């Protein structure tokens, strides 16, 4: 009985750290096996919500974490990442992720049509990748503020004008990091454009 309680405690710890979600991969790393997970699901201790994903029964998972669960290649970006950082006041209705070019997104699109993907070169995909807490308390993988600004400037013609203007205004008014911004900008080939924005705001 003690072993059972200990295992459930481990699963709860995993769930608490991941917005209520327990993945098979994380459970295996913590010492639980697939047979045990299936048994707990059959008994109603766990609820299977997708392939390789469970919640503790009765717990409502973090929506933002759930969408991203199972793949570190799904990085919140553009409007979604800006929302997390307070660079946008728009609650996302379309969830935006950046993925490496060639990444197969067909199954995810079938599962949720409210997701928009941005495909980037593999060598650029990891730039600015970090983590933070979602508004619902779960850990999410997203781009940092400087990467968000670089993406805005790179794709200005495809970005909503209000989102673009508001994002830059808030960023430069709230502890900008010019050194990091220009470092990223050079990698994306937009450092000259960034310098122009910085000069307008006397940050050069």
Molecular structure report:
The protein contains eleven helices and eight strands. Helix 5 runs antiparallel to helix 8 (145-154), helix 8 runs antiparallel to helix 9 and helix 8 (145-154) packs across helix 10. With 204 residues, it is α+β, with helices and mostly antiparallel strands. Helix content is 49%, strand content 18%. The protein has a three-stranded antiparallel sheet with strand order 1-3-2. A three-stranded mixed sheet has the order 4-5-6. A two-stranded antiparallel sheet has the order 7-8.
Could you tell me the radius of gyration in angstroms? 20 Å
Give the terminus-to-terminus CA distance: 64 Å
Q: Quick check: average pLDDT?
A: 87
Biggest sheet strand order reads: 1-3-2
The biggest beta sheet is recorded as: 3 strands, antiparallel
* Low-pLDDT ranges: none
N-to-C series of helices and strands: HEHHEEHEHEHEHEEHHHH
Structural class: alpha+beta
- Structure summary, number of beta strands: 8
Percent helix among the residues? 40-55%
Summarize the SSE layout with pairings:
Blueprint: H1 2-17, E1 21-23, H2 24-29, H3 34-43, E2 46-50, E3 53-56, H4 63-68, E4 75-76, H5 78-85, E5 95-100, H6 106-111, E6 115-120, H7 122-125, E7 129-133, E8 139-143, H8 145-154, H9 161-173, H10 178-188, H11 191-200
Parallel strand pairs: 5-6
Antiparallel strand pairs: 1-3, 2-3, 4-5, 7-8
